[in-house]
Write a structure and sequence with these properties.
Helix 1 (8-25) packs across helix 2 (32-39), helix 2 crosses helix 3 and helix 6 (107-140) runs antiparallel to helix 7 (154-168). The chain contains eight helices and no strands. The mean pLDDT is 93. By secondary structure, it is mainly alpha-helical. It folds into two domains: 8-51, Homeodomain-like (Arc Repressor Mutant, subunit A); 54-192, Tetracycline Repressor, domain 2, CATH 1.10.357.
Length: 194
């Protein structure tokens, strides 16, 4: 017997309810019954769409990764200097997750669950973002940056940039502190490739 696909409105209500409750009570203290009630659905209707709360959590993470990658892609293909585009791309990719973690009293638990349940999604998102960065460095090579003089390929520049960005994201960093660190780092990184 095949699983019924939820109408987008129902699926969206379930995910929104899960997002609200995970932020309010944490992952462990939120039950499927709580999510069904918050979404205004019966438990049976909820289970037709999602097997368990882990499934809902992964659905939320997948949607968030896609939105963040879209924001990064838009920033990298937009106007402005390479420094401005890189900063906007990293903010688009990273800040929503930092904001979610900071806005919930259960932020560290949510990060632990993200790592446990969604590591594959984060890894794929990271690979896709790194590819976008490599393409941006390729387009900027010879005008905004000179990769050959730094003995870097676009892919190597993207790898170095992405690894460094990862280091800026301390567990307890606030969005404002991250923005400040990021602005300084991107300026130094791009300046070093001129």
């Amino acid at each position: 017997m095949s699983k019924t696909v939820a109408p987008p409105a129902t699926r969206g209500r379930i995910l929104e309810a899960g997002f609200t409750l995970f932020g309010r009570y944490g992952f462990k203290r939120t039950s499927m019954e709580d999510i069904a009630s918050e979404a205004g659905l019966s438990r049976a209707a909820l289970y037709l769409q999602f097997r368990n709360k882990e499934d809902i959590f992964r659905g939320l993470a997948a949607g968030l990764h896609e939105r963040c990658l879209k924001a990064a892609e838009d920033a990298l293909s937009g106007g402005g200097t390479l420094t401005e585009r890189l900063q906007a791309a990293v903010e688009g990719k990273t800040l929503p997750m930092i904001e979610i973690t900071n806005s919930s009293p259960h932020g560290s638990e949510l990060m632990d669950e993200t790592n446990r349940l969604c590591g594959d999604l984060a890894a794929e998102s990271g690979r896709r973002f790194q590819k976008m960065l490599a393409e941006a460095f390729q387009r900027a090579d010879g005008t905004d940056v000179y990769l050959r003089s730094a003995r870097l390929t676009p892919a190597e520049a993207a790898d170095l940039f992405a690894a460094s960005i990862h280091g800026l994201k301390a567990l307890d960093v606030t969005p404002a502190a991250f923005r400040k660190r990021l602005a300084r780092f991107v300026t130094v990184f791009v300046s070093g490739l001129r």
